[in-house]
Amino acid sequence: MHAEVEEWVKKAFEARVEEFSALINEAREVLKRENGLRAGSGLVRIAPQAVRKVAVIGDIHGDIESLVHVLRDTDVETADRIIFLGDYGDRSEESVEVYYLLLTLKALAGIGEKLILLRGNHEGPPDMPVMPHDLLLFFTSKYGARGRELYNRIRELWEYLPYAVVVTGSYLMVHGGVSATVTSSEDIAYARETHPSSSTFEEILWSDPIEGKGYFSSLRGAGRMFGEDITDAVFRAVGVKTLIRSHEPCEGVDVRQRGKILTLFSRKGAPYFNKRAAYLVLDETILRDAKDAGELARNAARIW
Ligand SMILES: [Mn+2]
C-alpha cells in the first residue's frame, strides 16, 4: 500500500465535491451490501481459523498523519482483516480527508473486503448526538454549501456500519464498552434494532470501564461506567476472554480491569496531546489462543 497511500492522501486533499460525492456512492453500495449479508446489523464474526493476521486501530478523530502511519505498515496491508474501532471525524479539520481516505479503501476491490469500520459514538444515531461535533463545519469550510450535502450523506453511511467484532472464543471489539443488558451475542448483533427500548447500543458506543465491580451512570451523559462483574457476565454470554475497545484517550494502550480490557488509542495531537498512539497486529497464535490485555499490550501493540 506504500506507494498508493501517498496517491490517495494527495487525492483526499485535492478531491472536488463531485469526486467526493461519487466516492460516497461507491462506498455506500459496498457498505449496504455487507450490511444486508449480516444477521443483525451490528456484529461481524471472525473465525480464528479463517484468518492469519488481523490489525486493530482505535480512535483516529481526523488525524490523517496517524492514519497514514498505520496504513504504511506492511503487516496492516497484508492483514486479513483491518478493523477500525470508530470515531473517524471531529477534533481535527482533516476529518474530511480521513473520511475520503477510509472510503477510498472501502470502495477498493482487494482491500475493501478486509476493512471493517465500526461505529463509534461519533457515528451514532440522530437521537444520540455528540458534543462538540465539528464534522459539518469542516465539510462546509472546505466545500462551502455543498459540504453540508456531503456531510449528510456521510451520516447516512453510519447506519450501514457494524459496531462489534467477535473473534470466536477470544476477543470482543467495540468502540465504548459492554452492557449488563447483553445475555447473548444476538443482543449485540441486534442492538441497533432494539435501540432505544434497550440501552445496549448506547452502551456499546459510549460506555467506559471502571476498576473493581459496579455499574454507574456516566459523566459523559450517555453510556455507563461498568465494572469487572459486568465484563465477566458479557464474556460468559458471548464466549470471549478479552475486550478490545478505544473511546478514551491514553498513551496508545491502557490495560484495564486486571487484563480483561485493552483500551487502544490511535491518534495524536490536540485536544488530548497524548505522546504515544498505538494499533494492534494480532498474529495466528494471538488469534487462536486468547491473550489478556497485558500480553496484547506487550506483544501485539505497535506503539509510536
Ligand atoms: Mn468515542
Distance between the termini: 19 Å
User: What hetero molecules are in the model?
Assistant: manganese (II) ion
The percent range for helix content is 25-40%
> Do you know the CATH architecture?
4-Layer Sandwich
CATH topology category name? Purple Acid Phosphatase, chain A, domain 2
Strand tally, please?
14
In short:
It is built from 13 helices and 14 strands.
What does this structure look like?
The protein is an alpha/beta fold. The protein has a single domain, classed as 4-Layer Sandwich (Purple Acid Phosphatase, chain A, domain 2). The protein has helices spanning 2-14, 17-37, 64-71, 74-77, 95-107, 135-143, 145-158, 185-189, 191-194, 200-206, 228-238, 284-288, 293-299, and strands spanning 43-46, 54-57, 81-84, 115-117, 164-167, 171-173, 208-209, 215-217, 224-226, 242-245, 253-256, 261-264, 278-282, 301-303. Strands 1-5-6-10-12-11 form a six-stranded mixed sheet, sandwiched between helices. A five-stranded mixed sheet has the order 4-3-2-13-14. Helix 2 runs parallel beside helix 7 (145-158) and helix 6 (135-143) packs across helix 7 (145-158). The longest helix has 21 residues, at 17-37. The mean pLDDT is 97. Residues 87, 120-122, 175, 247 line the site of manganese (II) ion (MN). Residues 87, 120-122, 175, 247 line the site of manganese (II) ion.
